[in-house]
Design a protein that fits this description.
It contains 11 helices and 10 strands. It is an enzyme of class 2 (transferase).
């Protein structure tokens, strides 16, 4: 596929996402790019995404390798979501969403999870507002499958994801499956309601403290007092400390919190939305540890003892530098 690269719409430690225009159709797509020698995680994401087909999952458009005299890059081509992420939409609505809109988005997230859990046997492993994209018609779509995995056969491997959204069993480094996604749904609902991450307190922005609180002290995020009793009961089903006691996506779709509210169309802004970091918290506490795994010089988080994990976090810092001249246009041409 021939395409012209446009503006940067996302930037991480290992990959950059651009808006791009297809030459043949004029369609706008999203292109996620990484240096080829650091693209194993992106190739894994492409493999999983190419097997999925749901209106509540971002669509796969292809993949390719681009070579220049100086470097080779791996490109994952995807559906473009014009309204950005759910986190972006929440910010545009004054930092929080009303309950009717929370219901709408939560229902759509669960429909996507029901599909990947039941039909494909896949756990996403990094559900959060910044990984939920909002499409042309205002529908929520699950994106960023860089941490995703097949749940069977169950093999021992390092857990991945974002500390603020990790379930107790994940925080302890024990296991990660579809039940962990349900815990993250509960955290994402709190994020939509409050406009901030699900943990409060003086140590709420410290990943080590939060992992200790959820994994070893048995704490769960505090439920916002503004929620109705139905909403609180719904979150209670998501945030069960024991993974096997959490409701499934199918069960949650039939919870009164989701079935008694009318469908409404969310009010969305217009224009290109980016998910650029706005604070150090965005870069450290909200970022997936999956993004760090490509750097072989860094010790694995889960291979360290608890007292070593703080020093490991010193490796994870904000990335303020961007490519020079992000506004310039590059034309990519690849022969079929």
């Amino acid at each position: 596929m021939n395409w012209t690269r446009g503006k940067t719409i996302g930037h991480g430690s290992s990959a950059t996402v651009y808006a791009a225009t297809c030459h043949s159709s004029g369609e706008i797509i999203a292109v996620k790019t990484a240096e080829y020698h650091r693209s194993e995680f992106l190739q894994r994401e492409a493999n999983i995404l190419s097997s999925l087909n749901s209106p509540y999952v971002i669509k796969y458009r292809g993949c390719e390798i681009t070579e220049t005299p100086f470097e080779a890059t791996y490109n994952l081509l995807m559906e473009y979501a014009p309204y950005g992420t759910l986190t972006d939409v929440t910010a545009k609505n004054g930092g929080l969403l009303d309950e009717a809109r929370v219901v709408k988005y939560t229902r759509q997230i669960l429909l996507g999870l029901e599909y990947i859990h039941n039909s494909k046997g896949i756990a996403h492993c990094d559900i959060k507002g910044s990984n939920i994209l909002v499409g042309d018609n205002g529908e929520a779509k699950i994106g960023d499958f860089g941490c995703a995995k097949f749940v069977k056969p169950e093999i021992t491997e390092p857990v991945k994801g974002t500390p603020a959204f990790m379930a107790p069993e994940v925080a302890r480094g024990e296991r990660q499956g579809i039940e962990s996604d349900i815990w993250a749904v509960g955290c994402t609902v709190i994020e939509m309601v409050t406009g901030s991450h699900p943990w409060i307190g003086l140590d709420s922005t410290d990943p080590v403290s939060v992992l200790y609180r959820v994994g070893y002290l048995g704490e769960a995020p505090e439920l916002p007092c503004s929620l109705t009793e139905q909403a609180k009961d719904f979150l209670g089903k998501c945030l069960k400390k024991e993974a096997k006691e959490r409701w499934t996506a199918t069960q949650l779709l039939n919870h009164p919190f989701l079935v008694t509210k009318p469908n409404i169309e969310p009010e969305l802004g217009t224009g290109l939305v980016t998910n650029s970091p706005t604070s150090v918290t965005d870069q450290v506490f909200w970022r997936s540890v999956e993004e760090e795994e490509e750097d072989q010089d860094r010790p694995s988080w889960w291979e360290c003892h608890e007292d070593e994990r703080i020093s490991v976090l010193n490796w994870i810092g904000p990335t303020w530098d961007h490519m020079d001249g992000e506004d310039w246009i590059m034309v990519r041409r690849n022969n079929d």
